[in-house]
Amino acid sequence: MPFADRQRSQLNWVVRKVLSYFAAPRLNMREDYEKVRRRQRQLAVLPHPSYRALDVEIMSADGDHPIPVRVFHPRERQRDEVLLFFHGGGWVTGDIESYTPACATMADLTGCVVASVDYRLAPEHPFPAGLEDCLRVAELFLADPTRAGAEPDDEVILIGDSAGGNLTAAVSLALRERGEPGARRQIMLYPVTHWDHDPSTSPFASVRNHGDDYRLTNTEVQDYFDLYVPDRAERAQPLVAPLMAEDLSGQPDTLIITAELDLLCDEGEAYGSALEAAGNVVRVHRVNGALHGFIALPRFSRSLREAYEHINAFLDGREEHAASATAAETT
């Protein structure tokens, strides 16, 4: 089985107590999302390593609005792939400014061009607005990678973290439903794949075990859903909760990376199992001891570097790396 060991690593109570201090402030996201956005913009202007980037705009399918895309070039390009990135933030916060350091790091550590999509956010633009923006950019970039400053034959790979991982899965499902060519590969970092994050009803132990103490809370996720999909009856549809899809066949080769101390850990891994059961090629790696959102950590972070080891192995198609890593995890 190419999946992460289901046995949790043992952290003593002192370590868990220290980690709990890094938990996000207990905000009411339904009221405080604008405050969070302002804070993210303030952090985005802080000095960070230099990077090479180009801002482009893609017109929406209906011609109603432009969709900003920031294209990052690595200091040394080592691969022909283009990573089309959908950022996290619960579909409510985050943008290409706040994710600029993470995307610059992604470009340098993979040697790939990275194109970050500034899709519309809820609650001003609830579902399916953000998904439509991501889908529009994916369609155009998959058809013509030169829009990202790449070569015509370069491969475009979908990638996203958290809510962006959800959008990655949804874009691939939507492209298949439309009968359009999809990406050959996709990468999801601690994705949202299910609609229920109430610890009293969720089918996942990680929601109950890690929904109060660490980086992301059950309440915050439920607030995000209230803003992104106000109609509760719509939340179980596959383009919101990909794990609910009845047919997951014909999906791209997939890498899913989860964080052990994240309430989304189990649903991300469950999506990997469901994709494999539908006949897709899937790798799942759990970063033990990691919190939600580790893609934004400094480059020297153990969690970040471990994740990129697996991302780069996936990009290189190194099956032997995945097999040896899985064997090490399960011992």
From TrEMBL:
Occurrences of domain Alpha/beta hydrolase fold-3 (ranges): 83-295
GO molecular function, one term: hydrolase activity
Pfam families attached to this UniProt entry: Abhydrolase_3
Organism this protein belongs to: Leucobacter alluvii
Keyword Nuclease: no
Protein name per the record: Alpha/beta hydrolase
Gene3D superfamilies associated with the record: alpha/beta hydrolase
InterPro entries, A to Z: AB_hydrolase_3 (IPR013094), AB_hydrolase_fold (IPR029058), GDXG_lipolytic_enzyme (IPR050300)
Alphabetized UniProt keyword annotations: Hydrolase
Keyword Hydrolase belongs to the record: yes
